[in-house]
Amino acid sequence: MGDEVDGHRVDRSRSSLLTRRLTMLTGALVLATAGTAYADDDPDVDAGKCHVVEFCVGVEVDNGADGSGGQAGGSQGGDSSDSDLNCGYTRIEPKPPAEQPAWKGKSPEKYDMYFMSCSDGGLDNPDGFIVVPEGQSPVPQVEPQELAQRAVDSMTLLGPDITSPRSTGKYTVGVPMWMWVNQSATTYGPNTASASAGGITVTATAKVSKIVWQMGDGASVTCNGPGTPYQASEGMAQSPTCGHVYSKTSAGAQNGKFPVIATSTWTIDWQGGGAAGQLTEVRQTNVQVAIGEVQVVR
What we know:
18 strands
């Protein structure tokens, strides 16, 4: 049951979360104003408490088509919404004073304030206050960069698809090794995806900008491309784009092989929602390589 204050019935259970959240988000309400308006009317209620109650009395849940049961968006390789995150919106009436930080500089005469409470069915229950033009429906407040990351997460970016060196290959000290990788949307790019929420769509395009090879013998080779496939006609020539020459065998390494680690850096350019930027992702692939010596038969 609610309590009656100044002739109004207050639903404590419905307003308590909003009251606590407002206090945490914006700090104390303007208590001086509360004291002037209400303390003299009810001397048994302190100014601060009275102001909070009056602020919450008029809170009404808008069950119309203005988004009280709206959802925050997500992505899965394209334009879609994240059905796992459900958001409800409560319009704040009467409107708080213009000096409240929750307005973020917007005018109460032209804007409405809503309390947004979301749940994904688990422990992630974001909430907060949003400000929208009067008469407009509240929409999820999502930063374009967050949507860009959602788009990237839907791409399933992987480490390099190593063609050479092969774990079953036979390689020799002093003989140039050519390194190269297969190119696909998930292992090299380009890979493009979009994500949408709140009327905003962000499109991101990812491509590998470099691959750093840790050769297992202490050497590191940085290649700015996928490498050049070896042709028998090249003979003993070194790779023009990505290669290495071992100066010792892998006999002393664990299992008799050098652990080769290829680390790709994905550079992602994104734009949308009136913004643009760049993100970076890193992926790895490992392979074991045996390096022997040329056996001379006399």
